[in-house]
Design a protein that fits this description.
Shape: globular
Oligomer: single chain
Number of helices: 18
Strand content: 5-15%
Distance between the termini: 21 Å
Helix content: 40-55%
Structural class: alpha/beta
Length: 493
């Protein structure tokens, strides 16, 4: 089942990368549904359409690869059965519970958790706080997590959680009460556990919420459980988190772009020169994913000329100082009024740039704006930002679309590293740090001794380069995480 999902996920990515024309999974569906209707499909149905199309493309290959004494018809039946298994959501939980606000008012909080597939356990997926959270959205995001984990060969099934609130309208104490109560509800229903289901941060949540969750679990249901801190990832370092997790999704997105933008063949197909230098980009969403994606793209030589946020859009052809914008947003709660760029009401999704990075909500690129998108590379930092109708249009226009299954898999990859760290109860590098340092010192001493033996009477000191000097001390946890993430993205490409 895991190999089937990897094949399916790679087929979806290869379809985009090779710029082949998208063919709908059902000709009946394509002929009876307009582009506008496709854009208006539910999120879950949109995801299912993409999956069914990918399944159609790989089914014959899987039948041929099936090594057994079964007849071709029996093999076909088996493969079709596996596809039927991976489409629906296995388990879904909806909870409604009361919460007393600071004013004394009682409010009913609605939350969801979906476990899409247990072909590998635990299931894994973020927990978002957003007023637009719905059952359909949570199911769709859980399905995407299953395929995403398969894409980068992370041994998790897919899951997702959401609470239907606007976190900006609740105090810290209220958010803590909501989080702790929801943690209890998940645990009682069997939707939380280091070997069962492991949440992580998502839109509207972060290290703070994860620390509340792990504390609630460890102090109640997980009391005496040695692996209690592996019940969630994305925690603060002091509570078992891992270095590099906060920026992991953005860093992974950068590596995904790197795999294609440095490839001469791909760049020739879309009319760009290889490399980041001189490229311009616009990012939609300046939260965790958008910020870190923009930061790494900028460091590689690309220039950010536009930012789209909830409270307004910014544009500057000379480039936006991302550090200044980050500090401004932290101080003011938004990007409106930032002096380093011009505020604009124009739709920057269709502005002139080389790379477009949608890192906000799903279904942002539709059949209505896809024909006008000028960017040659679209990197899906968000989950499902492109509808199936828009996807066809972009491919027909020879745009390179790097899909979310691959582009934003950095977060779950580093979450996997954190989960392993929690299970092993030792940080990466701790057992080898000193040994690697001493081995490097002995290596240089050995080379120096060999040289001096061949040239008696001469002192021939051997010094490491500045770059090697940094590595001589051994790999830190952050070094190992960054290296492991880069290797995962490179291998998965």
């Amino acid at each position: 089942m895991a190999s089937l999902l990897r094949c399916l996920s790679r087929t979806q990515r290869q379809l985009v990368a090779s710029q082949r024309q998208f063919v709908p999974s059902s000709q009946r569906f394509a002929s009876s549904v307009s582009a506008d209707d496709e854009d208006n499909l539910g999120f879950s149905q949109m995801v299912m359409n993409f999956v069914e199309d990918a399944a159609q493309r790989v089914s014959e290959r899987l039948i041929v690869q099936e090594k057994s004494r079964e007849t071709p018809d029996q093999k076909k039946t088996r493969v079709e059965g596996m596809f039927k298994i991976i489409l629906p959501c296995n388990h879904f939980l909806e909870v409604n519970f009361p919460m007393r606000r600071d004013t004394g008012e009682i409010e009913i909080i609605q939350g969801y958790r979906a476990q899409h597939s247990q072909h590998r356990t635990p299931t894994k997926g973020g927990m978002r706080y957003d007023i637009h959270v719905s059952a359909d959205e949570v199911r769709a995001l859980a399905a995407l997590m299953t395929y995403k984990c398969a894409m980068v060969d992370v041994p998790f099934g897919g899951a997702k959680a959401g609470i239907k609130i606007d976190p900006s309208k609740y105090s810290t104490n209220e958010l803590e009460r909501i989080t702790r109560r929801f943690t209890g509800e998940l645990t009682k229903k069997g939707f939380l556990g280091a070997g069962v289901d492991v949440p992580a941060p998502d839109m509207g949540t972060g290290e703070r919420e994860m620390s509340w969750m792990v504390d609630t679990y460890a102090m109640s249901f997980g009391h005496g459980d040695l692996a209690a801190h592996a019940v969630v990832t994305g925690k603060p370092i002091t509570q078992g988190g891992i270095h590099g997790r906060v920026s992991a999704t953005g860093r992974g997105l950068f590596h995904s772009v790197e795999q294609f933008i440095t490839n001469t063949s791909f760049m020739e197909q879309i009319g760009l020169t290889p490399g980041f230098k001189g490229k311009t980009f616009i990012v939609q969403g300046f939260g965790n994913v958008g910020l870190h994606s923009a930061r790494y793209l900028h460091r590689a030589g690309a220039k950010c000329i536009g930012v789209i946020e909830r409270d307004g859009s910014l544009f500057n052809t000379e480039g936006i100082d991302l550090k200044d914008l980050e500090e401004y947003k932290l101080e003011n709660g938004g990007v409106r009024g930032f002096p380093g760029a011009e505020a604009t009401d124009d739709d920057l999704l269709v502005a002139d740039c080389d790379i477009l990075v949608p890192c906000a909500n799903e279904k942002q690129i539709t059949s209505r704006n896809a024909p006008n998108i000028k960017a040659k590379i679209i990197v899906e930092g968000a989950n499902g930002p492109t509808t199936s109708a828009a996807h066809r249009i972009l491919l027909e226009r020879k745009r390179l679309v790097i899909p979310d299954l691959y582009a934003n898999a950095g977060g779950v990859t580093v979450s996997y590293f954190e989960w392993l760290k929690n299970l092993n109860h030792v940080s990466f590098g701790r057992l080898t740090f000193k040994y690697e340092h001493d081995s490097n010192v002995h290596l240089f001493n050995s080379v120096q001794t060999a040289l001096e033996n061949n040239f008696p009477g001469k002192k021939l000191p051997v010094y490491p380069t500045a770059e090697y000097q940094k590595r001589m001390a051994g790999a830190s946890e952050k070094d190992i995480v960054h290296s492991g993430l880069a290797y995962t993205m490179e291998r998965s490409a």
